[in-house]
What does this fold into?
Amino acid sequence: MKGMILDAKWEPRADYQLSEWERSTGKAITGSAVWRHPKLEVGDWPDPQPGPRDVVIEVQACGVCGSDMHFYETDDEGYILYPGLTKFPTILGHEFSGKVVEVGSEVESLTVGDMVTAEEMIWCGRCTPCRNGFPNHCTNLEEIGFTIPGAFAQYIAMDEKYCWPIDAIAERFGDEEKAYEVGALTEPSCVSYNAMFERAGGFRPGHYVSVFGAGPIGLAAIGLARAAGAGTIVAFEISGPRRDLAEQVGADYVYDPREVSPHEVLMTLSHGAGFDFHFEAAGAPHLTVPEMEQALAINAKIVQIGRAAQRVPMYLESFQVRRAQAFGAQGHSGHENFPNVIRMVAAGRLDLSEIITAHYGLEGVVDAIAQSTKRTDGKIIVKPNL
Ligand SMILES: [Zn+2]
Ligand SMILES: [Zn+2]
It folds into this structure.
């Protein structure tokens, strides 16, 4: 089959302490410290060989993620920017939907023809965090499109336990093609849902919500906040097109954070009360958190979902005086995240279809990723089997 393959050179930086585990598995824990001179190209890759509990999915839509962009972009020394778990060569792509075309002998929940989306995190179910109910913190984690082959390809094999049917979304839209595209937004939406409702415990209807960063994760957060009954939603985003999208999915006020003082805006809009829930999806916490902590309502929550490998100055006195909390969130698995997001989309409560701003075929994946580095699109969708 054809797929978009990323290969790079294993050249750990001189100051990076490679662990024994990294050496023996060939997996880098901090990709940006190990992988150099990435090469992305569409090429031939062996067809997936399904195990007894796997289904083979013909990929119909796969979104370009910020992490894909960070594989394409390099620093001055040629290292990839993505700081997470990685093993190359592999096929990229992890936000997808498709049609089941083959099922293994022991598969019970799916049949040929089913429309599905899937988790990206291949949690083991056997390690202590998994057994304690925290699959997003699995210690034996594999990730499709990062350490094992992903979905910028014609086919992918997945254990049925990571797949979730999206036929209810198809019923909602009355259009299979649209359902696959919207279905491919499930994974990033679940990242926001997990952060907002599972990790940080959500907010009360009427609460004021701020979202810093209106890329796909922030846009999903805005849509979810609207659906959950936020009183006022304010978004801060430097890209003009993304500010427009933020408004379309439900932000009441949208600002360029370079042109206003975000905490002053939030204090003015809340008549001095502060905002109850702050969502960091800009990946710039050294800039955003100091703004949030000057606009904390009593009992306010901050949830960190944007990735940034840096320390952030925090004035904890504000957290004491305002009875505030900060939460770290990662991942999308477990905690009813996938079923609940699919329900919201199927019910029309969460409609992010407008954030899809561009489409590419499989031959154009590298162009699609290059386009994403402009950071002006909402979600770019690749359709490998068109
Ligand atoms: Zn992603
Ligand atoms: Zn595990």
